[in-house]
Each structure stands twice: as C-alpha cells, then as structure tokens.
Amino acid sequence: MSAMQSDTHLMRILLGIGGGIAAYKTPSLVRDMRSRGAEIAVVLTENARRFVAETALQAVSGRKPRSTLWDADAEAAMGHIELARWADAVLIAPATANLLARLAAGLADDLLTTARLATTAPVYVAPAMNTRMWLHPATQRNVECLRADGVTVLGPADGEQACGEFGPGRMLAPEQIADAVVAALRTQRVLAGVRVLVTAGPTREFLDPVRFISNRSSGRQGFALAEAARDAGAQVTLVAGPVQLPAPAGIDRIDVVSAEKMKAAVATHVHTADIFVSVAAVADYRPTEFYAQKLKKSGRNGSEMHVLLEENDDIVGSIATAEPRPFVVGFAAETQNALAYGREKRLRKNMDAIVVNDVSDQAIGFDSADNAVTLIHDGGEVALQKMPKAAIARRLIEEIAALYAARAARKHTARKRDR
Ligand code: CTP
Questions:
Q1: Which listed residue, 42, 158, 249, 321, has the most CB atoms within 10 A of its CB?
Q2: Which of these three, 186, 216, 234, is where a domain ends?
C-alpha cells in the first residue's frame, strides 16, 4: 500500500449553523463544500432556524437537517453520538458570540454543542457578529480558549456589517470557508491506506509477583498519535504498555506489560507496517532474575539489598537496522541537552526521524495534557510550541506523512532508474 492510494469515503463534514444573520449564506456554503467533494450533514441551533429555511438546506445537502436531540425518528436513523463519529470534520458557521461562549465553556445543551463535544474530529468555527461583540474581551477570551482546545478559527473578515457598522465581524465568504475546510481535510487524510504501528506507555519489569521497575509515562502522547494517524486515514495497530487509557475507537490495540512482550508484539506486526512510531518509554533494564514468590525483607535494620539488572533489547533500534524496514520514527524524553541527545540518538538508532521532548519542564511531557516537541529528521528540524497533546499529534502526523511520502517517492524514482 502507499500514501498515494485513494480515500475510501467522501469527506464528511458536519455543518453546525448558529443563529446569526450570516446563516442565510449557509445553503451556498453547503453547495460549495459538496462541489469540492464533501458529504454534508446539517445541524442548526434553535435560533438558526429563524434565519435560514430548513427546506433549502435539505435540498442542497440531500439530507434532512437536524436541530434537536429529541427527534425520535432522526435519533433512530443516526443517533447524535453516531453523527459525531460520522464526521471527519465539524464546521460551525456562522458562529455567533453566544455560540462561541457555549463552545468555549464546553456546554452540551443542544444537538450542535453535544455533537461537538462528542466528536474527535477537528473542529472549525467561522465567527460572525457585530464588530464590538467580536472585539469584546469576553469573546476574545472565548476564542483563545477554543484555539487552545485545538479549534481552528476561520476569519472573521473586515468590512461593512449587516448592522451598518464597519470592522471585523463578517463571516468569511462561503467559498473561502469551503476552500479552507476541504483543503485541510484533504491534507488531514494524508495517511489514507497506510498502515501504522505505534507503541505507547511504559513497560513494567517485574522482580517478583508484586514489585516492578517502571517509569512515569502515561501513554497519552502515544495514544494521541495513534488517534491522529487513524484520523489521517491510516490503519493503526497500537501496542500499549500498562496505562489507564480507554481503547481508542477504530484502532487495533494489543496490551503488553514487559519490554520483552512489547518487542514480541512489535515483531509480529512490523512486517505489515509502512510506518513504525516508537513512542513507548521502554524500560532500558530488567531484573536479571524473577522471583516466583514475593521477596521477604531481611528484618535487620539498615541491611542492603542489591538487584542486578540486565539491558533490554532496543526495540526501535533492532527494527531500524533490519531490512526491509518500515519508515521509523522514535521518541526521546530528555532532561538535559534535549536536542543534542535527540540528534545523536536518531543517528545511533538509524531512525528516519525522532521526536524530542524536554521532560524537565513540568508544564509539558509526562503526566501533563500539553507537550512541546522538536521533530528531527535528516532534512531539518521542526519545533512545535506548547499545545495540547492531541494537537501535537496531529501536527506530527502531518510532518511524518510528508516525510514518508517523500521517501516513497524517492524509492519509486530509484526503482525506475535501476530498471
Ligand atoms: N526504545 C526501544 N526499546 C528500548 C528502549 C527504547 O524501542 N529498549 C525506543 C523508545 O520507544 C524511543 C527511543 O527508543 O523511541 C528512545 O529511547 P531512550 O530510552 O530515550 O533511548 P536510549 O537508547 O535508552 O538512550 P539513553 O538511555 O542514552 O537516553
């Protein structure tokens, strides 16, 4: 399989319409997105229904628009959670000041806001409101909040408004919104048909039935990467160490405990992987001996106990130095000289790319929701500033997909030359 393979379904966009005057433009928006190859399902807020005719939306989208959680027939056909899962992207246009506030607060008090909370797909908002309302610190604060949650804000444009004032607040033109969302979705499905193997979480190296050596990895960054790869269209296998995370939908998850078991699971699945992303914090050492029964203490105060450790095999290193091999991406969590160690580690382990993480910073890394990393490859380095782990994962997947596609293209040219 290759990165060039075509996608299996049309892009699916859930269009949420807010109650502003710009809602009258949404039938054109639906048409513009459909003409660019997207399938559209429409959800309106109660107020939006005053600004745009549902019959018009039904005619252009080819589906009955929805506005309430309490429509038994619509729920029976496709429940609201299913609707949220169905979407490859959620676009909210126009997003009024009130709707932005509800989204920023994480409310789920109607079908639109509920669907937005229930989706893992990227969310886009196209604000439209009076200039003063847009510039108000409360609205700006809400927009910042949404950005921090990974929402993409499209516009607003500057110009004359329906209320006669001038300034920022106009919804972007439907074609501009359609271009932005469809283009983003195209790049989003950059791994369509590609098989990705990810390891995540820590490993545990048992000394006896109740004691083990492990580390602080939560598995969150690895799980986020697996999900981002899935959202980009990849077929994902996730080998997870012991973590407190639910199995992501649509991903083949294999649970392991020790480094040896992780290595075995990777060895079984690597042959069918196009890309291997080794995020797991694999324990470097394991106790040389495993005691079948719980070890007892000596009972003498101050006595010493020595545990002898032996090195675990390097999983990513062994994959990256074998042939044939997938495109290999490693991770490095460092507490000092992060970039220098990362560069050295990438070369030493023969990896195509490495993601370096400075875990001495408490605000990022291990248990936190945010991360900041640098991706190092043979053609350069990309620094990603602090953002939620899911957003980091999406950006990393974009970069990895581009590097993978470039390598596939180089191989293709080399094969043609050798013929
Ligand atoms: N890794 C692995 N198998 C191991 C140890 C690490 O596959 N036994 C992978 C990790 O998943 C990660 C990368 O190697 O992608 C970096 O691991 P790290 O432990 O930081 O590298 P080390 O070689 O142990 O370097 P050092 O101990 O010098 O930090």
A1: 42
A2: 186
